[in-house]
Design a protein that fits this description.
single chain; mainly alpha; rod-shaped
Length: 275
Amino acid sequence: MFSALLNNVAAAAQAVLNTPGLPPQVQPLREHAGAFATTMLPMLRTLSGQVTGFAQLASNTAGDLRPRLDAWKAGDSGAHDAILAALQDLLARAEALLQTDQADFTALSRYRDQVLADQRTVTDVVNGLNARLAGLRSMMNSRRGELANQERRLAILRAIPILLPWAIAEIASLIGTSKTLEQQLSDLENQIAQLNGQTAQANHAQGVVQGFGNQLQLLENSMQTMLNAITLTQGQTQQIVQSVRAGQQGGPVLVEGYLATLKAQADGLTAYLNT
């Protein structure tokens, strides 16, 4: 599952890079999207390999120690010491891996924060464009109303059989004003057409960025699940080590049960990573 999520995020990041016409305000988004392939992806693939290797080692160790447990049950102190050494080595690996996983999880969270900031910027751009469009459309409706009133007034004056000088002057004024309004309407239509194009591009960018952010959220959740699983495995291994150190007080039978649990946890982690 983890590998599939990595591929999904990489594809979403590439979609951002391939998106044309990103607003100038969100150009840093391209840098952040590009950084996933160059920085985050190699780090997380390495971590995935390390976790897979550790899970397999933990599973194999739990299985391989069964014959030694039988020897320990029979009173072989050398078997006890060998079991303890193997488990201490596994515990050290678990603790080191846990630190690495925590550091990588923090790095991913900070990276996602950058993308979330990009999402907010894109949303602000879209909202700003929509507000400008609403203002221009309102202005155009107002100009259309004014032009309609002018045209009605002009029609009334032209219907007068004998035009007096004042009527002639008003007709001339109305004609001039109407031409001005028609030019303003033409300019507004051009501005709205341009803004519609910008808004369409911004809306597309918003969808792409939202998809990128959603995939990152899924990846972050998966990393948290993986971190929890490693923490659980590390805790289980530590408990086994403590039991083995207790010697006959802990008992090989108790340790055998712990090892079975450890193997199940490790196999579950492997399955999660490879699904």
